[in-house]
Amino acid sequence: MQTPADPQDRHEYPSHWEADVVLRDGGTARVRPITVDDAERLVSFYEQVSDESKYYRFFAPYPRLSAKDVHRFTHHDFVDRVGLAATVGGEFIATVRYDRIGADGTPASAPADEAEVAFLVQDAHQGRGVASALLEHIAAVARERGIRRFAAEVLPANTKMIKVFMDAGYTQKRSFEDGVVRLEFDLEPTDRSLAVQRAREQRAEARSVRRLLAPGSVAVIGVGRTPGGVGRSVLGNVRDAGFTGRLHAVNRAFPCDLKEVDGVPAHRSVRDIDGPVDLAVVAVPAEHVPEVVTECGEHGVQGLVVLAAGYAESGPDGRERQRALVRQARTYGMRIIGPNAFGIINTADGVRLNASLAPEMPRPGRIGLFAQSGAIGIALLSRLHRRGGGVTGTTGVSTFVSSGNRADVSGNDVLQYWYDDPETDVVLMYLESIGNPRKFTRLARRTGAAKPLVVVQGSGQAPPGHAVRATRLPRATVSALLRQAGVIRVDTITELVDAGLLLARQPLPAGPRVAILGNSESLGLLTYDRCLAEGLRPARPLDLTTRASAADFHRALSRALADDSCDAVVVTAIPTIGEGAVGDAELGEALRSAAEEVPGKPVLVVHVELGGLAEALSAAGRTAPHGGAPAPGTGSGAHPFRPAERLPRAEAAQAVQAAERAEIAEAVEIAKTTEAAGAAEHAGIAKAGESARAAEAVGPSVTPPRSPKPFAPEIPETSRTPRPHSRLIPAYPAAERAVRALAEAVKYAQWQREAADPGKVPEYDDIDERGAAELIGGLLERGQGLTIGAEETCRLLGRYGIDVHRALAAPTPDAAVDAARALGYPVALKATAPHLRHRADLGGVRLDLADEEQLRRAYDELRELFGPPEELRPVVQRLAPRGVDTVVRAVIDPAAGAVVSFGLAGAASQLLGDMAHRLVPVTDRDATSLVRSIRTAPLLFGWRGSAPVDTPALEELLLRVSRLVDDHPEVVAVTLEPVVVARQGVSVLGATVRLAPPPARDDLGPRTLPAY
Predict the structure, then answer these.
(1) Strand 874-878 to 845-849 pairing
(2) In angstroms, rounded to a whole number, what is the distance separating the alpha carbons of residues 232 and 220?
(3) Which residues pair with 915 in a beta bridge?
(4) Where are the alpha helices (DSSP H) in 386-485?
(5) Which helix (H) or strand (E) holds 909?
(6) What is the rounded CA–CA span in Å between residue 693 and residue 680?
(7) Is 744 helix (H, G, I), strand (E, B) or coil?
(8) Environment class of residue 632 by beta-carbon count within 10 Å: exposed (0-12), middle (13-18) or buried (19+)?
(9) What is the per-residue pLDDT for 391?
(10) Looking at residue 653, what is its pLDDT?
């Protein structure tokens, strides 16, 4: 950290202005304030700027800076005069400064709120988006210091800088005078400026990941001289995958005369490599990594995959070592995957990179896969590519990232890459933690609108080594918010793969209507029951009987798909033998050819002990003639497993459950084996043979029956990626797995349709935003965080059109009578002691008190039941119209942001956790869905003959609460309980509001990488 020494500096060095940013080309730079210690750096920087750029900056030839210039450009008060520099390798590559000016254009101090701004970017770094990033940061600094408007004078020929200002998205005014273009623009963020900023963020972060996943050259550092060891294994993995770029082996212990290792050029240092190195895979012990990072940075390496362990997962010393690693890498503009990473894979034909500990290259496909844990990553890869006994097929992986401790590159970065990656159709993510939930939900919503995003969330406890922002929200609330953002949220890796393969292979269903057909009545009925349980609308199963031929399956599937009352089809199949028995390949081709006839509806297969069918379904997609499928009815003979029979329903259920238990047990075994192997490798990363033994340990549990490969048999190059029109039908060994995957696809399709029209945030003429702000400001002067009183609560909520029924204290029976007279009969008498509040079931509420006699009698009853008034804290309230009691809450979570929640009041709803949640700002469509999302929603709509209540009024209340917390982040918590929703209107009978200084929001500030 820099420390200014000039006595004129009026503020301490603002270290919170320091930030790392990703530039347009994917590299990184550090932005920090310029101080008096930067004089030599500034002079050196200026000397490397071209005469033309100097002319554009000063409007005249200016070959060198004078001592006075250097003093002015390095001495700042960090209020009225501020300078920022973008640095790479500790050296300046660009600068920006502002000077506060008054109305006459001369230097000024506050309350003047305008400043002149000027940039200078080194020619070698122009076009990298440096000026745009600096503009975001200097604007944020200016807003913090009370500056609301920037002015800039630019020569007309300086089109690049004019474009920087014009493209920023701020409200601008442009004029031309005396041969100079003058630009003035407000610094208040606008919808357009935020959109521009986020689009630049996406392009930059996607490019930074693309540089890691598609390098032109790779150096593996830490390659052992003898076979075995992590470095040597990774080198072999990269080479054997057919990497299309240049590959180098590096080890400082290599003999000087060693030219090659396993056919790969060998070097003692990265510095000895002729030509650029885009990616370095670092497989040396943690204590040697800093030296390697320095060599890589000085050679211009763009990114690192650090396999070594011994970082934050190992304790406080390791955590500091990890911070130092990230700081060091960013100094040189490099990004890091890891440390403690499993590696990365890119199966694209033009890349073919396997820079990981996986001994085999996965099958190419359209699924992007992200896992923080190496053990989970290898288990997912294995599941996606094994044959028989489970979900199988030719759908493979486009790219795979296992981020380890994710000290730098995170799931958010990779999601930015997959958003517009043409090689990825479906994204699967196993997240043990979410470092920035607010950003993740934003990115997920945008990605989900383009392609499915399926997520398994870990235990909720961040693993050692993960820097995670704390959230106060329950796990169920976070899951609900993820679903609102379009995330397909599942619970296990089995469900992750099941849903992913369906979404990668089949179109989205248009609705929940499901046709079921097959040769097993029992299995069909099991499927029917599961559809009902998952909220789908199944038709009665069509039993083709065990005598059904491939032609029968073809005709039945064709009819079902052609039926307008069907949105999806589940085919159930059990094996048969005997005369006329259908073979796997024959049945697979019959189903696939029928599905091709109506390509707009998804088809799934549920099979019991029919491993060959899953293979056949995939093979049919690979080998069918281009002109169409052969007619069904000819095939490969009988199935060898069992005689023809109809399974009893109980037996079918047992078979399904046994298959599922086997799947889960295998997944657990894979994870345990791989975790143990990974721990052994990383604990002694330079030891020989560990990676090979880990591969052997994992291999047998995932090896396909017909192939010795751990993941997949080799596929001919011509058939490696299915044609876009091919229909690959996913097969599942259990009805519940198929139906659960289909249900997720139905919900995602519905979300995607609704996301196309997200609704709007209504404007209400009676909202007094300014009055509420003044009231909040005055209340906060009393303290940093407080729950405001009843009167202030009513006044604040009233500013937003929310009327709260007054509750008058009744410490004595006479006081209760006086309160009732003031409010008017009928009234309610309530005990508000903490143990009785909102607990009508305990008897602490008396309603419909029509006169003084009834009120006094009720008062005596409460005292007799619960004790003296000082313990009861009784209040009298005007009686509200009868209706349904509900609860409305809003809270600002420091990690996820502002959240509005809704549910019915009462112990039953609390016990079941029946609350629905939406992120703020809530739109009119959000409010409508929020009311209908709880399980007890039928009570609002006339359940069992009751009168429907006024849900439009309830939705308006939700929208007003959302506006309150969105407009005033100082309102950190609101609870309205109970809210009685009557046939006409709503009555808010209780309200509490908590105020506090708002938590910092990094999503509205300039682009930054997580701080270390």
Answers:
(1) unpaired
(2) 8
(3) 903
(4) 411-419, 437-448, 475-484
(5) helix 907-912
(6) 10
(7) helix
(8) buried
(9) 35
(10) 44
Q: Are 72 and 109 in contact (CB under 8 A)?
A: no
Structure confidence by residue, pLDDT tens digits, 385-400: 763 333 334 578 999 9
- The number of angstroms, rounded, from the C-alpha of 945 to the middle of its chain's C-alpha atoms is 43
Q: pLDDT (tens digit, 9 = 90+) per residue, 502-541?
A: 999 899 999 999 999 999 999 999 999 999 999 999 999 9
Q: Which token pair is 749?
A: 């399709």
Tokens found for residue 762: 């209504």
Task: Report residue 693 as tokens.
Answer: 């033994």
The DSSP symbol for 157 reads T
CA-based angle 437:996:914, to the nearest 5?
A: 50
Q: Which residues contact 209 (CB under 8 A, 6 or more apart)?
A: 26, 335, 401, 409, 413, 414, 416, 417
Strands (E) in 3-43, as ranges, are 19-22, 28-33
Q: What is the CA radius of gyration of the chain?
A: 33
Cα separation, 664 vs 383, whole angstroms: 11
Residues with Cβ within 8 Å of residue 448, at least 6 apart in sequence: 485, 486, 487, 748, 751, 752, 755
* Whether the Cβ atoms of residue 931 and residue 958 lie closer than 8 Å to each other: yes
CA separation for the pair 481, 919 (Å, rounded): 7
Give CA 259 to chain center in angstroms.
Answer: 45
868 contact partners, CB below 8 Å, separation of at least 6: none
* 718 Cβ contact partners less than 8 Å away, ≥ 6 residues apart: none
Q: How confident is the model at residue 894 (pLDDT cuts 50, 70, 90)?
A: confident
Cβ 874 vs Cβ 830: under 8 Å: yes
Q: Of 624, 604, 623, whose CA–CA distance to 614 is shortest?
A: 604
pLDDT (tens digit per residue) in 561-594: 999 999 999 999 988 765 556 677 888 889 989 9
Q: Do residues 404 and 372 lie in contact, with contact meaning Cβ atoms separated by under 8 Å?
A: yes
Tens-place pLDDT, residues 422-460 = 999 999 999 887 777 888 889 999 999 999 999 998 765
Name the percent of the chain lying above pLDDT 70.
83
| Residue that is written with structure tokens 């609108």 in the block | 449
CA–CA distance from 884 to each of 941, 947, 980 (Å)? 10, 10, 5
Q: What is the pLDDT of residue 29?
A: 95
Beta bridge partners of 898: 892
Query: Based on the number of CB atoms within 10 Å of its own CB, is 256 exposed (0-12), middle (13-18) or buried (19 or more)?
Result: exposed
Token pair belonging to 17: 């202005």
Q: Cα(29)–Cα(128) distance, rounded to whole angstroms?
A: 10
Please give the Cα distance from 934 to 941 (Å, whole number): 12
Instruction: Return the H-helix or E-strand segment holding 73.
Output: helix 67-74
- DSSP state, residue 804: B
Residues 326-345 have pLDDT tens digits of 999 999 999 999 999 999 99
Tokens representing 293 are 């990072």
**Contact predicate 33/14, CB 8 Å:** yes
289's enclosing H/E stretch is helix 289-299
Whether the CB-CB separation of 286 and 310 falls below 8 Å is answered with: yes
CA distance 615 to 386: 10
Q: Nearest Cα to 965, choosing from 708, 707, 776, 765?
A: 776
Mean pLDDT score, 33-41 = 95
pLDDT (0 to 100) of residue 340: 93
Q: Indicate the average pLDDT of the chain.
A: 83
Q: Determine contact, residues 127/17, Cβ cutoff 8 Å.
A: no
pTM, 2 dp: 0.81
- Tokens 């600002």 — which residue? 892
Residue environment code for 134-151, b if the CB has 16+ CB neighbours within 10 A, otherwise e:
bbbbbbbbbeebebebbb
For the chain, the 3-state helix, strand and coil shares in percent, each to the nearest 5, are 40, 20, 40
User: For 841, which DSSP code?
Assistant: G
